[in-house]
Amino acid sequence: MYGSDSDGLHAARAQLVSFSARLLDDGLAVGSAGNMSVRIGDRVAITPSGVSYTEMRPEDICLVGMDGAELQSSETPSSETPMHLAIYAATKAGAEVGAVVHTHSPEVIALSAGRDELPAIHYAITGLGGPVRVAPYVRFGSSGLADAAVTALDGRSAVILRNHGAVCHGRDLAQAYDRALLLEWLARTYRLALSYGEPAILSAAELDEVTAESRRRRYGERRSGRP
């Protein structure tokens, strides 16, 4: 999560520029497609519309209120601002959601055209809350798309948008971005598995067992007090 002071805003803007540049290198978007945001108290810092990731600067990052009002914006806020705000508003005032990442990654877009869900092809999908739903197609930038994303995100930290892309959220930008990478990897793994025939899919009980064991082991967490 990000502090609500000016230092928190400065850090958020710098991180948004840094992670935006990675979108292209990691194959999660092309051109200026996709967008990401972080929540700072009752404000949201979000990437601008139409600005190349290779040219984006911290001062280009837009700041909007939870009602969508522009607070500090030298550029035009992302067209998907309504979707970002709806996700924050739907998660208990953003209590556990500090960042949202929207990608146009090819594997999940391809999957969205032929499937209604990304199934549990690997136990790592528990990191996204379980099998990832594909939300119905709705035009970009619309309130309908925002509603569809929020509905499909129920109980999940990722959603695939049909013929569009994907959205992941997390406690901070690093976690949200890592989930976007994981989602794309899972979609690719599922496509590869299909090339061998009908793949085996993990059951809900098997996923519950993974989740319970991960919590018991505190899997993926670093030891505290490490120098």
Assign an overall shape. Answer: globular
Identify low-pLDDT runs.
none
Q: How large is the count of helical segments? A: 6
Gyration radius, to the nearest Å? 17 Å
- The string of secondary-structure elements, in order, is HEEEEHEHEEHEEHH
The average pLDDT score comes to: 93
* CA-CA gap between termini: 22 Å
Derived structural class: alpha+beta
Main β-sheet, spatial strand arrangement: 4-3-2-1-5-9-8-7-6
Helix content: 25-40%
Strand content: 15-25%
Total beta strands: 9
Q: What composes the largest sheet? A: 9 strands, mixed
Describe the protein's architecture and organization.
There is one protein chain. With 227 residues, the chain is α+β, with helices and mostly antiparallel strands. The chain has helices spanning 6-25, 81-89, 106-112, 143-152, 173-194, 204-217, and strands at 35-40, 43-46, 62-65, 70-72, 99-103, 117-118, 132-135, 158-161, 165-170. Strands 4-3-2-1-5-9-8-7-6 form a nine-stranded mixed beta sheet, sandwiched between helices. The longest helix has 22 residues, at 173-194. It is globular. 41% of the residues are buried.
Concise structural overview:
This protein is an alpha+beta fold and 227 residues long.
Keywords:
single chain, 227 residues, alpha+beta, 9-stranded mixed sheet, 6 helices, 9 strands, 36% helix
SSE layout and pairing:
Elements: H1 6-25, E1 35-40, E2 43-46, E3 62-65, E4 70-72, H2 81-89, E5 99-103, H3 106-112, E6 117-118, E7 132-135, H4 143-152, E8 158-161, E9 165-170, H5 173-194, H6 204-217
Parallel strand pairs: 7-8
Antiparallel strand pairs: 1-2, 1-5, 2-3, 3-4, 5-9, 6-7, 8-9
Helix pairs in contact: 2-4, 3-5
